[in-house]
Amino acid sequence: MNEGTALKSPEELESALGLLGARVRFYSGTEGMGISISGLSKNYEKIVAIAQEMLLQPRFDSAAFERLKNEIKTTIRQMSANPRAIATETAGKLIYGEGGTLSRMAYGTAASIDAITLEDVKAFYAANYSPSIANITFAGSPDQKRVVKALTTLTENWPAKDVVIPEPVAGVSAQRGVIYFVDYPNAPQSMIILAKTAMPFSDPDYYPAVIANYKLGSGSQGMLFDVLRLQKGYTYGAYSSFMAAQHQNLFMAQSSVQGSVTMDAVKTFKDLIGGYSEMINEEMLASVKNSLLKSKTSSFETIGDILSMLNDIANYNMPFDYVKQQENTINNITVDQLKEIITKHMNINDMIYVVVGDAKSQMKPLEQLGLGKPVLVQR
Asked: Which residues form the Peptidase M16 C-terminal domain (predicted)?
């Protein structure tokens, strides 16, 4: 979709956008696809016209298609040698279950890429690109009347069709409270991930969980960073976060550490997360509230920030004042409520442990952690 149109070669399209100071890119991911459009306000109508041409009159060039397939396969090969990518993919397979829809990486495998034909792409486009499942969000200086007028041509010429969005197929998830080890022979470092399923973005518990996680692993002020980097010097960074969408929702804590300290680093993760609820007190909560409220004041200073908020409203059916509701949650949440959230959504016993490193030197010591014998899994 980014490789020219039926009326313009890729070079001609790039030139046309460049003359307008514009960028139009199609993108896709695990839970959706879209178009990102940016450019000068004075050229708004012309930019929308080009975006419409790209959307409604795609080129689908066979040579470009084969080139893109090769580029994606190159990326897959590179990712297969990256310990962080290996750990992330392994965690997904273990949590969502082998064969589950969400266990697969969005870019697929070399075999699945090879199996896709240009006719498959055309058929997918014909069946799934429809205004009936689309949202349009806008932020910028053109007024509403001007924005709507330019988009009217698009909506009038884009035929709607019924689209069935499949529900994710569930797999059989792996046992929790177990260390799963991926051998990366002679690796000087180990990649560590602790993860569990979490709630969707629209869940009432989501933002309280974000608040609960803040002091544990949200940046350099978090306990994980403080202990693993500043106190022990095992890593350049250690973090945790809730990653929420509609279906693919995770709590994940992670770090890349020196290989020789793998066992103690995993123990530190286990101890900090497992004991986190007992560490929460009024003084800590007051500090968290102050930091979060300050960050909220600068959260919507750019057009991109505003657009992100609008996308959350559109994609997750959030109320128009959800940001204000989040501020109210910050102000009113209590220590007891945080402890309840931590117990419910950050329970160490519900997590899987993934370690990617040198099995010969690092796997055996992990048996000391009381989690049984680590399970060796294939890449």
From this structure: 116-292
Burial annotation 359-376 (CB, 10 A radius, 16+ → b, else e): beebbeebeebeeeebee
Residue 276 belongs to domain with CATH number = 3.30.830.10
Output b/e per residue, 82-121; b: 16+ Cβ within 10 A. ebebbbbbbbbbbbbbeebbbbbeebeeeeebeeeeeeee
My answer on whether 146 and 211 are in the same domain is no
**Tokens found for residue 75:** 């990326």
The residue range of the domain holding 21 is: 10-157
> What one-character-per-residue DSSP string does 210-270 give?
HHHHHHHHSSTTSHHHIIIIIIT--EEEEEEEEE-SSS--EEEEEEEEEGGGHHHHHHHHH
Report if residue 99 sits inside a domain. Answer: yes
**Per-residue pLDDT tens for 197-216?**
999 999 999 999 999 999 99
- Rounded to two decimals, what is the model's pTM? 0.94
Residue pLDDT, tens place only, 314-358: 999 999 999 999 999 999 999 999 999 999 999 999 999 999 999
